[in-house]
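In the current project phase, the collection of sequences with tokenised folds has grown. One resulting record follows, to show the layout:
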Amino acid sequence: MGWIQELNKVYDMMMQLPETERQGLIPVGFTQKPIKYLVALHPDGTFSAAYDLSGKKEKNGPVYMIPTTPQAETRTGSNGTPFPLADQLKYLAYDGVENPRLNQYLSQLNDWCEQPDAPEVLKTLYSYLEKKTLLQDMRSFGLSVQYNKDDAKKDADGKDAKMLVHFSVESAEKITELCARSDVQQSWSRYFNKQSADAKKTLCYATGEQRVPLENHPKIRGNPKLISAKDASYPFQYKGRFEKDGSAATVSLEASLRAHNALNWLLDKQGFRKYGLNIVAWNVQNGPIAVPIEEQGWEEEEPDQPDTFEQYALALRDAAMGKNSKLRNFQKQIASCLDAQQRVAETVILGMEAATDGRMSIDYYQELEGNAYVERLETWYRTCCWETYYKQWKMFTPTPLMIAKAVMGEESVARARQDKQCKKADAKQMRELYKRLLFCMVDGQALPRNIVMSAVHRAEFPLSFQEKDSWSRYKWEKCVETTCALIRKFQIDRHSSEAIPDNRLHAACQDRSYLYGRLFAVADEIEKQAQRKQEKTSSFLPTHAIRLMRLFVQRPAETWKKLHMQLIPYLSILGEDQLAGYYQNIIAQIEQTFVPEQRMKNQPVTEWFLIGLYAQRRELFTEKEQRVPQPQPREFYTPEQSRSEWFGCLLAVADCIERKAESQTTEKQTICERDGNTKALRTMQHFVMCPADTWVQIYCDILPYLQKVGVKAEKYYGHLLHQLEASMNPQQRLDNTPLDSMVLHGYYGMRHSDKGL
């Protein structure tokens, strides 16, 4: 019952303020309803005019505060209790057929009119409705009212039968709406309280006092109820534990109405209501502080104005949606408040879920002490964050919506947002995801691994990111950034012994998945740059890397060999701008960082693949002066006992001989005309399929270039080729079966380490 007590505090505090400062908080005994029709009466109780208040935006009319009773608010087909003043047309109209609902309404209104302080306008209304000419008068005034009632029907037909009607009485100055008159409101409040005072009392479990109990509790924004039970025909609900149903729990009418009115007000003012979730946070001070009157005759200070810490709650809501800058700005604003620490210490968070149309459950309730709420949110921002680029590199925390798109996919999120009833699978999945994220943000729970891995798997399907029937690189990149933030949060939560993921490149990292992610990023960038040069446009088709990504993460070694073969034409295009050698040097640096045993494995990569992918992409877009220093190339490269690696070394030497022979030295740099376009590189695909036979042809092709490199270089390269040939097993050397992915490891390892390059 703690939530009822806290909400009663909210109600009590706010009702002390002027009505203008607590706008929207409904007093006990009143409710808000849309009203379509207004009927104006003369002071003598005769009909004057009728108006249709509905419009394009408000089809059922504007919302008014009207008197109510718990029985009227919870009425169903079997319980036809009318509202005391304004009500549906079927409770007020007479169409030549006896209307029991109208008789019940008149009886209830008559009881109110008999009160000593009842305003005269109520008696005027009663005398008019007693004539039963309302429907006839509205139609005669020109309103097209769709209403029909006959004896065979329980209820009236027509769409206007359930439209609400309220009344006004003309005065000399203006038409005064009865619902808005202060004397009518005050009279109803006194009458409502008198009825409650005369009823039988019992123990209220929320307040601990003897109060009038309430059986039918109010609804929360629609039909769901927080407090409800089936009727006494289902005794199994309480038997075995209690003798009577009331022994389980009893909440008084006053406590329930005040709590529900305060909750509805808080939800409208500073709550989150989507996907069947209702989450609200508030903070209430201990109440007005009474300043004692001193003997010196000081004037009594005005009591502190209580509030629900609305700005703080809104800032927290924005923070939960990822707008952490607003929370930090607000923290600066409240830093100078004397009661800031006290107010923050009393934060209450309530989370509710409507499982069915008629039932709502409290899934989350927390009363936080100290600065726990703010501290946990700040921890979330500090740990679940990543870097993005918008005019400049900056850190960001993904919003729950961004996380949902990364985990569920944009199409599922779109369907969930369109499902206003929250009955379809996508909306339910969205609701469960938001609940779990709430626990992580507010309770400090560890981020579940299945959320992280769902985002990882979705990022590994880049072709699923579409926009207007075409592939969207932007959406895929945003998904990768969000996923990297989740991976970072997951590693921090688990206090993993592994390094915490970082958006900057770790050139010395030897994690196999991380390195394959770097290779993937370079391959994607090579083709993208070639597309830009050829098409002269910023709109690109998916690269081969993007198309092969899913296969790449499952079988990286094998797929990298296939992908590299697709890059050879693009390296030739980039060679003219001296970019082919630049990208090949990056690939060589990555290949040299691999542990050979790990490089040979063809098993799926881990989530660190995406971290490496992002870090390498960021490095490619970083200014040269700000790039991470790369390890120096090895002076000599010794291949492992792998046939594919040995053949890769031979191909690298052939490539280097041609590049050396065709290079030209200027005053500023050495320019190689064959960068990315050597005969050895162009025949690589055929070389991989038939290495022994193809090597003979390649060797014949490089002989002219050996003569052009100079005597010293010719001697060096000849000696290097002799050593490689001699180091190979004759049987391996003559084997003509296709090479595996280690041919690239050997090629780039030798290419990057040869001191003659």
